[in-house]
Design goal:
CATH architecture: Alpha-Beta Barrel
Helix content: 25-40%
Number of domains: 1
Distance between the termini: 38 Å
Strand order of the largest sheet: 3-4-5-6-7-8-9-10
Oligomer: single chain
Order of helices and strands: EEEHEHEHEHEHEHEHHEHH
CATH class: Alpha Beta
């Protein structure tokens, strides 16, 4: 059971990754992202998740430097965007990202989406970056089981992480089982359902545990051993999102939340996207 913000999961290559981090999707470059990252680090977060397409890597890097946090204390993730996929273009995109972030190495580099006929070549580039010591772990994002199976046939390294949309309305049981069986750490983006937390069960459990609906969902993720990166730009909300280590959900409540599943996506379907 995760009992504090600094607790980490051990990835399949031995690297340790925090269970909870700050996501910065749609957070504006400049002061907005710098303030969010600064607030997270002040609140004790040790993981920041960005991506090339978020266009805020420079601000993330500046906030990290200004915070004074030791580089080895912070777990930093970014992702290669779809238009940069392919072998040589991924290596170039990586160089651009680390330059913007102002770091020499990344803790985790992900393929952002499974672009058909490209993601296997992209993965080959990630394997090279990993073998050359520029990245401590490599993984994927938005991969279904069949994408992971396709990758497995041609890859040398098993992804350390699969970051996907995951919440009580989209529980992805088959994918979660597959990832557990293959020692791939699942990670939840959009865990708070883009703010759609107005549900009777969440209200009931929030009252039962003396927490907010958002805190209930974050704890639900952690109780299922899913790494979680809720996004916020509000310092108080960033602190609240991390205030989930003084309780755990009873097993029947974990199951009741899982039973809310409607296979409902708030983001795109990895089998049907056009960007």
């Amino acid at each position: 059971m995760t009992t504090k913000l600094t607790d980490r999961t051990e990835l399949n290559n031995g690297v340790k990754m925090p269970w909870l981090g700050l996501g910065v999707y749609l957070v504006k470059e400049g002061d907005e992202v710098k303030n969010a990252v600064r607030s997270a680090i002040e609140a004790g977060y040790e993981s920041i998740d960005t991506a090339a397409i978020y266009k805020n890597e420079e601000g993330v890097g500046e906030a990290i430097r200004e915070s004074g946090i030791a580089r080895d204390k912070l777990f930093l993730t970014t992702k290669v965007w779809n238009s940069d996929q392919g072998y040589e273009s991924t290596l170039a995109a990586f160089n651009t990202s680390v330059k913007k972030l102002g770091v020499d190495t990344l803790d985790l580099y992900l393929i952002h989406w499974p672009v058909k006929d490209k993601f296997t070549e992209t993965w080959r580039a990630l394997e090279k970056l990993y073998k050359d010591g520029y990245v401590r772990a490599i993984g994927v994002s938005n991969f279904h089981v069949h994408h992971l199976e396709e990758l497995r046939k041609v890859s040398e390294i098993v992804p350390a992480v699969n970051q996907v949309e995951f919440h009580p309305l989209l529980t992805q049981r088959d994918l979660l089982t597959y990832c557990r069986d293959h020692k791939i750490q699942m990670e939840a983006w959009s865990p708070l359902m883009q703010g759609n937390l107005d549900h009777p069960l969440l209200t009931e459990l929030a009252q039962k545990y003396g927490k907010s609906p958002a805190q209930i969902v974050i704890r639900w993720d952690l109780d299922q051993k899913v790494v979680t990166i809720p996004k916020s730009i509000t310092p108080e909300r960033i602190r609240q999102n991390a205030d989930v280590f003084d309780f755990t959900l009873e097993p029947q409540d974990v199951e009741r939340l899982a039973a809310l599943n409607e296979n409902k996506r708030f983001g795109p379907d990895p089998d049907n996207f056009n960007f």
